[in-house]
Amino acid sequence: GNGGGPSGAANGVAIPASGARIGNGSGGAMGADGINVETKNAYVDFAMPWGVPLRWRAGLQPWYESKGLILDDDAAGVRGYGKAGIVSYEIGWYRASGGPCTNTAAPTAYPTGSATMCNTSNTLDNNYDFYEGKVGVAVAKWLNPTVYYIYGRNAATNTTAAGFTGDPNKPMDVHFFGAAVNGDAGFLRYDLDFVFGSAEGSPTGNYTGGTADRIKTKGWVIDGGVHFPIGPALIHVVGSYATGDKQNGGDSEAMPYIAPSWNGAGGLYEIIGSGGAFDQVDVTQDYPAGLWMLGGGAEYRPVKALWLRAMYGFAGFTDKKANCAFTEGVARACFGPTYRGKGYNATTGRGGIAGESYLGHEVSLRADYDLWTNFKVQGAAGWLFPSSGSTVHEYVLQLLYKF
């Protein structure tokens, strides 16, 4: 089936058909159902017989890799996972899209302009599928490496862009190679994630940049941190770097993605990236392409019930043209995030944040207090000071009950 997850530049979901809320009953792929009350997860999970160290999970389930740099969403699929000794392993097949919609008009039961259920062909292999293999080795408490590979076959997208001369129905290949390592050496903890990605026609499969054929997007991202426990406090030092489009013709150097939810370097920020735990203010996009970041902060637990965190982060552009809002004198259309800001001039492709060397500074504060078991009050405050324009503010007070 097709999915109902949110789509658009703000949250990075690129899967065709599945990447939009396409109507009640259309769900079953990336982003799950997409109705008012969503079916987030629904799956069966069972062990192999005869003592084989492997479990299978089939249905709507979470799919997450590498701090959400390329992927953090619900998906329909079949996943096998297990562990033998110090080695863990995983294989998976996920259907991101059941093909493009074949219906165009909303039925009379729907209000004018509303989304319809997305009908697709059941006789063609016009799907968008991902296949994953993953192996991890717990060498020691201080050394836990993992490697994985994701292959995507996109037969769901075609293009009729002006001037396009390629085969509009040719399946496009998507590749991601990932490596991660983390550990706890007592006096410090660390984590490091690296991903290289390549996608024909971008993750959507129809990116031509105004040329006669699809343009490949390929790039890499690295995100890491060290964390020092000092009594009841934990000190963080984190950083990240992701390639962006140089807008110099040829392939795009921007890091591609599937359905990301990256929350700044180390996943520790409330505004930069996907918006943190609360996502009240969304000023940056959910994937880190074209950005580098450095920052630090601390967590502190003065008493068992109270947890505090304060973070500072600085985010810059890997190149001025990695911000796709900067279009002055470029060779072709840009693939990647767009940050315009106040004062942007679309005619000149400059102004606001476009053409600046950095995005801004973030200062954020978090506090969680346990009132009783499974019930807590949470608070947050954040400020983003951009390179141009007004300060962004975020204030959150939330009661959270888990049952």
Protein model, in words:
Helix content is 0%, strand content 43%. It is built from no helices and 15 strands. The chain has a 15-stranded antiparallel sheet with strand order 1-2-3-4-5-6-7-8-9-10-11-12-13-14-15, with no helix packed on it. Strand 7 and strand 8 form a beta hairpin. About 7% of the residues have low confidence.
Low-confidence stretches: 5-13, 17-24, 105-115
On the 0 to 100 scale, the average pLDDT is 84
Number of strands: 15
Strand order of the largest sheet: 1-2-3-4-5-6-7-8-9-10-11-12-13-14-15
Gross geometry: globular
Report helical residue fraction.
under 10%
Our estimate of the beta-strand percent is 35-45%
Brief rundown of the structure:
This protein is 0% helix and 43% strand.
Give the key terms:
403 residues, mainly beta, 15-stranded antiparallel beta sheet, 15 strands, 43% strand
Topology (SSEs and partners):
Blueprint: E1 42-47, E2 55-65, E3 71-84, E4 87-97, E5 128-137, E6 144-154, E7 172-184, E8 189-200, E9 216-230, E10 233-242, E11 291-303, E12 306-317, E13 358-372, E14 375-386, E15 392-401
Antiparallel strand pairs: 1-2, 2-3, 3-4, 4-5, 5-6, 6-7, 7-8, 8-9, 9-10, 10-11, 11-12, 12-13, 13-14, 14-15
